[in-house]
Amino acid sequence: MAEASPDKILEDLMSRHTVDTESREFMERLFNTSLNQKEWIRTQIEERLENWDITRVAIIDLLVLQMMIAEMVFLEDIPPKVSIAEGVEIARKYSTDESSSFVNGILDSVYHSLEELSVPGE
Fold it and tell me: N or C: lower Cβ tally within 10 Å for the chain?
């Protein structure tokens, strides 16, 4: 099976759900930022994993972390604590029993180092 392009994935997602223009624009910004900054974001995650390899992180947890870190760092109109709460809730709903604590710990660590981070494009 061929891998779908990011544009095709986003188009497919949008075709399945009815969203207002503002929500659609936000979803596109978050999706594209998560993809465009993927390597930098993954580095931030890897630096916070203790005795754990990123390849062992559940894919849903990794995706939640990528999106919420993108939101906290690059989409400044969302308060970081809101991003953390959303990430924890998504992990609690869609991942393992331990995932919400894991996601909270990584996002909290990123939050507490926001001012010291060397962010691409700054």
Answer: N
Q: Which of 122, 98, 108 is nearest to 69 (CA)?
A: 108
2, 20, 21, 40, 116 from 64: Cα distances, Å: 24, 23, 23, 15, 22
> Residue 62 and residue 55: Cα distance in Å, rounded?
9
From first to last of its 122 residues, the chain has per-residue pLDDT tens of 457 777 787 777 777 878 888 988 998 999 999 999 999 999 999 999 988 888 899 999 999 999 999 999 999 889 999 999 999 999 999 999 899 999 999 999 999 998 887 778 65
Q: Answer yes or no: is 6 within a domain.
A: no
> Using CA atoms, how far apart are residues 65 and 95, in angstroms rounded to an integer?
12
- Residue 36 domain boundaries: 20-112
